[in-house]
Design goal:
There is one protein chain. By secondary structure, the protein is α/β, with parallel strands linked by helices. The protein has one domain: Aldolase class I (TIM Barrel, Alpha-Beta Barrel), CATH 3.20.20. About 35% of the residues lie in helices and about 20% in strands. The chain contains seven helices and nine strands. It has a seven-stranded mixed beta sheet. Strands 3-4 form a two-stranded antiparallel sheet. The longest helix is centred in the C-terminal third of the chain and has 17 residues. The chain is globular, with a radius of gyration of 16 Å. The protein binds iron/sulfur cluster (SF4).
Length: about 200
């Protein structure tokens, strides 16, 4: 049975799509359909009502995070509806984990649409330069993908209360250069573990 909402410690994660705007070499969805014993391969994308029902099945949580086997901001309208409803009914912080390609995907700056309903954006930086990014993340936009990612982080840092730029610690990655770039864009920095396939 595919999982829409799953809890780790006291954070509730939402898995609302399997579509991605990148094709990352290190993505764990290419190795396993389950994460923390949850089947994250969806038969179909859940509706607003199905997502809210999945959230309501849990009694208690401290935070909602859009993070599953896909890029949530591909479904921008649903993300905004759910984030607004969570704010109204649960009064907990909302975070989106994203690959930062949404402004390219939607052809406009979407950050102002998230301001006020999203408390934190955790953006996958993953590289200190466009060449490394393309090698690791295979952006369909080519080098423009990395430029747009950096712009997304900079714009988000000006409007969203907390912005984290993260990297997956793949072998040979220049983590210090990534940290320097993240801080220069106005974000904090986080290193995530690498799970070799
Ligand atoms: S954007 Fe995220 S979910 Fe999509 S391929 Fe990359 S790591 Fe996987």
């Amino acid at each position: 049975m595919p999982t829409i909402a799953y809890k780790i410690r006291n954070t509730l994660y939402l898995n609302i799509t399997n579509r991605c705007s990148n094709d990352c070499t290190f993505c764990i969805k290419f190795n396993t359909r389950t994460f923390d014993e949850n089947d994250l391969f969806l038969d179909e994308e859940p509706s607003f009502h199905e997502i809210m029902a999945a959230i309501a099945a849990f009694n208690e949580f401290d935070e909602i995070v859009f993070c599953g086997y896909g890029e949530s901001l591909i479904r921008l309208e649903i993300v905004m509806q759910v984030a607004e409803a969570v704010k109204q009914h649960y009064s907990v912080p909302v975070r989106i984990n994203t690959d930062g390609q949404a402004n390219l995907l939607h052809g406009r700056n979407i950050i102002p649409e998230l301001a006020g309903i999203v408390d934190c954006l955790s953006v996958s930086l993953n590289a200190p330069d466009a060449e490394t990014y393309q090698r690791l993340c295979h952006s369909p936009f080519g080098a423009a993908g990395f430029t747009a990612l950096c712009d997304f982080i900079r714009l988000a840092a000006a409007e969203i209360p907390e912005v984290i730029a993260s990297v997956v610690h793949v072998p040979a990655l220049d983590v210090d250069a990534c940290r320097t770039l993240a801080l220069s864009l106005g974000a904090s920095f986080r290193v995530r573990p690498y799970y070799p396939g």
